[in-house]
């Protein structure tokens, strides 16, 4: 196998992470549209969500192929691996949430879910803006600080949703279904924070 | 501590993974028998399942002991560590599923569960066949391709089971119990895929 | 950035892990008090639990900052990283359990929960005693052996609680709530075992 040295110009790793992040943004846009849609539209949107996730998987695989065939990498190999898999987790959680909404055939979602999803949309945008800046590691501090703040907002929204759900929803089956959806959304927020923490760690190490 | 160099003949790491995988196959066989058994037989089968898991744990610990005492390893130390722990996850998920069937004192399981378990059986066989081939890294491509295909089948079976469960099962307690079992089976399929992806990554890196 | 060599006297890493472990002990003490408290007292105790978790987070971040700025580390960088994050998982699981008790507005907890929490208290004490011994790696064997034994006790307590819950609790909503709490406690026991296994691995490697 040809092992080639990375030239400074080879930003391929960051380009691929950026491409993946664009699909994550697309995923949160689809999720947002899902909230206001009826069952028929949601089936169609779930298809689009699956397509976004497949596109993200492809760029992630291309990233890993490159990583495995590159001798000199811009950061530690493990750090790059963790970046890619953390970003992949964000996409998976978003897709699972949309998936469960359709699978459980949920009618209207509690209002608090809008807050969860709008926080995720902002996390996705910030992440997509941050990926290209990994090449220089400049100006990433605001990114991880803001993500941590958003994760706290997501956490509060989640806890209120959970308390309201158990207080107000008399039907246990509905409780199980809605808990499944808001758990998936909460886990997406955690994944964005996990990715941001990984980037903070890299930045500190490389600085 | 004596640190000894691996000689080409030292295939001990792969022998231990292969031995562990044989217990995983045994686990899926026991799980298959569980489906058609009554409560009394299941108690006995759950014991056998625990025995298989203990045997797998022992070979895994022997693997880790060797890994920690070996200076030159056939692949990256971390890769070997992840192989062993991914294989351990497969066994744990299988044991948990069987365990919950008994713990929840479940009567007959929905038909779709047979499909989940038959896919897991095939995953276990393929995995057991693949382990000895790690030494040469030859002919592993079919393995990881087929595992990925099986995981997709498992995923479809899981999603149908979940949708049917929430549509057809009126008793919430039964929903919680059955969801616990099919979630554990789905997570076993994910673990087999995770292991296969890890092996693909190693093969690409070492090739 | 100034990269400084660790002198033998620099036990800062272990001091920080020890400080974190002290907060984990505090967390289990608060959890224990929660069991016998009424709803109002629990709100106050949940605050204290959150404070303990924040204190643990700070020492963990200080640990990671140091790790990233230290050129020569006492153990493999990855091993130290995993130690800190495993210890962080223990704290998170404990805080989540206490959090759910308040969030779900649970009345009296089933007696078996006392057993779960008392095992966690012992795990926390043993862990706090073990951290300072990491510097010499002496006398840690008893620690990981006893933790493994405690995890088995926790597992049995958990399985009995689960079986009793599904047999005796007629209200599905209460089942979901209580299952959430005992699952979090079980996952805390797993985290203590995971940390102990990591330390065993390091001890074997460094010995």
TrEMBL record, chains A, B, C:
Superkingdom: Bacteria
InterPro entries linked: PhoU-like_sf, Put_Phosphate_transp_reg, UPF0111_domain
Record-annotated membrane-spanning stretches: none
Family the UniProt entry places it in: Belongs to the UPF0111 family.
Protein name: DUF47 family protein
Organism: Georgenia halophila
Phylogenetic placement of the source organism: Bacteria, Bacillati, Actinomycetota, Actinomycetes, Micrococcales
């Amino acid at each position: 196998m040809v092992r080639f040295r990375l030239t400074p110009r080879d930003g391929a790793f960051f380009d691929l992470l950026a491409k993946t992040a664009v699909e994550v943004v697309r995923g949160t846009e689809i999720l947002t549209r899902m909230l206001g849609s009826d069952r028929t539209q949601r089936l169609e949107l779930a298809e689009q969500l699956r397509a976004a996730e497949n596109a993200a998987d492809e760029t992630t695989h291309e990233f890993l192929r490159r990583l495995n065939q590159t001798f000199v990498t811009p950061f530690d190999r493990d750090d790059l691996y963790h970046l890619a898999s953390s970003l992949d987790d964000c996409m998976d959680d978003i897709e699972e949430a949309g998936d469960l909404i359709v699978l459980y055939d949920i009618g209207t979602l509690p209002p608090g879910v809008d807050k969860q999803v709008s926080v995720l949309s902002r996390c996705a945008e910030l992440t997509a803006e941050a990926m290209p800046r990994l090449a220089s590691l400049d100006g990433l501090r605001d990114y991880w600080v803001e993500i941590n703040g958003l994760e706290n907002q997501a956490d509060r929204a989640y806890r209120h949703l959970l308390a309201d759900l158990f207080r107000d929803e008399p039907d246990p089956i509905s409780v199980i279904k809605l808990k499944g959806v808001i758990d998936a959304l909460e886990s997406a927020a955690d994944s964005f924070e996990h990715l941001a923490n990984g980037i903070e760690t890299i930045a500190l190490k490389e600085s």
